[in-house]
Amino acid sequence: MSFSFVQITDHHLGETESQLMKGYATAHAVRKVMRHIAEHVADNIDFLIMTGDLVNNPSATSYSNVCQIFQLEAASAAPGPVLVTLEGLEAFPMYFLPGNHDDRDQFFRHLFTETPPMPLMNASFQHKGVQFICLDFGAGDDAVIYPETLAFLERSLQIGLPSVIVTHHHMVPIGIRWLDTFFQDEEKSEAFWNIATKYQAQILGVLSGHVHTTYEKIAHGIPVFGLRSTAPQPVFQDEPLLCLQPPHYRLVTIQDGILTTRIFEVPL
Predict the structure, then answer these.
(1) Radius of gyration of the chain from Cα atoms?
(2) Which residues contact residue 100 at a Cβ distance below 8 angstroms, ignoring those fewer than 6 apart?
(3) Is residue 211 a contact partner of residue 176, using CB atoms and an 8 Å limit?
(4) Rounded CA gap, 231 and 57, in Å?
């Protein structure tokens, strides 16, 4: 059985729809992306998944603004699906992961009203025989390999289903020094990959956000994908510098145990 879904990431929405991030209208970009999805792929996908950094400054007001923009119907349990209605999408199922900019307490209170807030959102869901394993490496800029996150990953993979791993933090270096600090301590990333490689045959791919950049790599025989954000993106240099490029979203199709993707660029 085959199905498709869309990944979007790193919205960095503010406390009002008009609030800018470094001069960039993040809410406008989100609306343009959602309109493009509604017009071009929504009829052929089963759900959306957002891979973290829903807001830029994690206040209750920011999350209330998110709920208003998405006309969000909160779900009972993380990671969803939550139903969203905007820009041509009507009560459309969407899964949410928290990122390093997301306050876990506010994130849960606004998106998952019946789930008690927890410090880490390690959760999974199944769709048409495929397991989606959502891993949380914390709210800091540098990912932390928590023992409970690794234990959750291994327990989930032991079920034996074909699986997609979904994270906020990127799991491979991308060549930007100030974003790749996580990988300066090789033991951090090795702890993750030591588990993943044991179950390589059943892992269809790893989807991540965080670095605001689209990439496709192979790590330990496993496809790994990153995605350009709907917020400003980094320039490939050693010191922090952001630029403005058209946002991306990733259409993912799983058919006969094979994951393929296509990138859509959205003009602003």
Answers:
(1) 17
(2) 52, 53, 138, 139, 140, 141, 143, 168, 169, 210
(3) yes
(4) 13
Question: Cβ contacts of residue 126 below 8 Å, gap of 6+?
Answer: 132, 161
- Per-residue pLDDT of 75-115, as tens digits, reads 889 999 999 999 999 999 999 999 999 999 999 999 998 88
The token pair that represents 117 in the structure block:
């807030």
Packing angle of the helix pair 60-70, 104-111 (nearest 10 deg): 30
Q: Which two tokens stand for residue 198?
A: 């044991």
Rounded to an integer, what distance in angstroms lies between the CA atom of residue 168 and that of residue 210? 6
Other residues' Cβ atoms within 10 Å of the Cβ of residue 119: 11
Contact of 92 with 83, CB cutoff 8 Å: yes
Q: CB atoms < 10 A from the CB of 186, how many?
A: 9
CA separation, residue 110 to residues 19, 82, 148, 199, 239 (Å) = 20, 11, 24, 35, 35
Q: Say what the pLDDT of residue 244 is.
A: 81
What is the DSSP-derived secondary structure letter of residue 211? S
What is 3-265's CATH superfamily?
Metallo-dependent phosphatases (3.60.21.10)
Query: In the 8-state DSSP scheme, what is residue 214?
Result: -
Q: Cα 44 to the chain's mean position, in Å? A: 20
